[in-house]
Structures are given as C-alpha cells and as structure tokens.
Amino acid sequence: MNMNSNVAKVASLVSEPSRAAILTALLDGRYHTVNELAHMARIKPQTASFHLKKMLDAQVVSAEKQGRHRYYGIMNQEVAQVMESFLSIAPAAEIKSFKHASEDKAIRFARTCYDHLAGNLGVEITESLKRKGFIAEENDTFSVTEDGIAFFHSMQIDLTSLKKKRRSFSHKCLDWSERRHHLAGALGNAILEKFLERNWIQRIPKTRAIKITPQGMKGFKENFAIDLDENKNGSHKF
Known about the structure:
Blueprint: H1 3-14, H2 17-26, H3 34-41, H4 45-57, E1 61-66, E2 69-74, H5 77-89, H6 98-109, E3 111-113, E4 116-118, H7 119-131, E5 135-137, E6 142-144, H8 146-154, H9 159-163, E7 172-174, E8 181-183, H10 185-197, E9 201-203, E10 210-212, H11 214-224, H12 230-233
Antiparallel strand pairs: 1-2, 3-4, 5-6, 7-8, 9-10
Helix pairs in contact: 1-5, 2-3, 3-4
C-alpha cells in the first residue's frame, strides 16, 4: 500500500468520530483488545468491533490472536504518519473535566507517536540534536553528521544496522501539538527504545503519555541540555 492509498483510506475512516478515537488510541504503538479500545474511545465493545472490522478490511489496522483474545494495532508506520498529520490540522478537542485537562497536558508534553517520541519532549530532543550539530535538516528527512555518528555511538545506537532496515531511516514527522517536526523512522524508534532501556522514561498504561523519571531528568539535562522542571510539566504525576 503506497502513501497516497494510505491517505485516502485513513481519511475515509477518521471521518467517523469513533473510528478516529480508536486510531488515535492505537498511536501508542501497542496492541490492544476490543474492550480496551472501546474504553479508550468511550464506546461499547460491540461498536468497537464493528469499526475494527472496517479498519481491518481497509488494511489500516492488523490483528493478532493470543489465547482467547484478539489484539489490534496500527498496520505500519506509514498509516501512523498519516494519522499524526491529520491530527495536526484537526481542531483541538473540547476539554470537559479536570481529569481530561490533566491527560491533555501530559499527552502534549511527552507521548509516543506509534514507535517514536513526540510532544514537547520529542520536539526538544530533535531541536537539541540539530543545535549540537548531530543531525542536519533536509527536505523531508534528517541526516546524521560525523559528530552525530560519534554521539549515537556513545548512546550505544547502531546506525549501520538501522540503515539496513526496510523502512525510513530518519524522516520528519509533523508534531500535531507542537506544530513543529520531531524525529521519526528507525532512528527515532531506536532513540525511544534507548530512553526506555535506560529508564529515562516509562510508558503509562492506557495512554500515549510518557512519564519522565528522575534518571531521565538528569540524562536529558546532561546529554541534550534540556531542563525538565517537574513543576513545569507535571507529566510524571499523571
């Protein structure tokens, strides 16, 4: 399926609010059951099943069966990229409660965008890599400089193996909340996985929001010159 086909199929699906809510929930890059997706989309499981069947037929989501349960996830990074782009031009959701406001703040500060880091933190990481001369901005991608090769080696990220993967290496992804680009592709995924491995960040159940740990606050300051004042973001309290 090419990118133009993805755009057309995702556009037709997100015109229905419940399907849009399901796809947005799946942007955490994880697989979920019907009941989990129904809860996140605030619809009945039977309704979620109906919409998931349509998305399976359109090859926008995939499904895996494990035991008695069936788990659903976004088909690939191209579909996720199209979905994130649509979110960048969609009107902001109405905030109806304090809980909703807290969730929205956490999502905007730091979240997963399919398999890479997004939100304010994702954009600031990208900007830091640019300022330090580790990556250079091109048309639709970022390239790694000689200094960047040394930096990623120090982070124990193997650029050679990443470039061999059958996917984009380091493309730009428009961040819907920041309206600026963050780093995606195989390199973006490797950075996210490295932060998780070092316990700089932690996933939060049932949300795309990311929790910043005390180790992460220190690591981001020392390696990226990003000062994460807990009183400013509050994400780790979410």
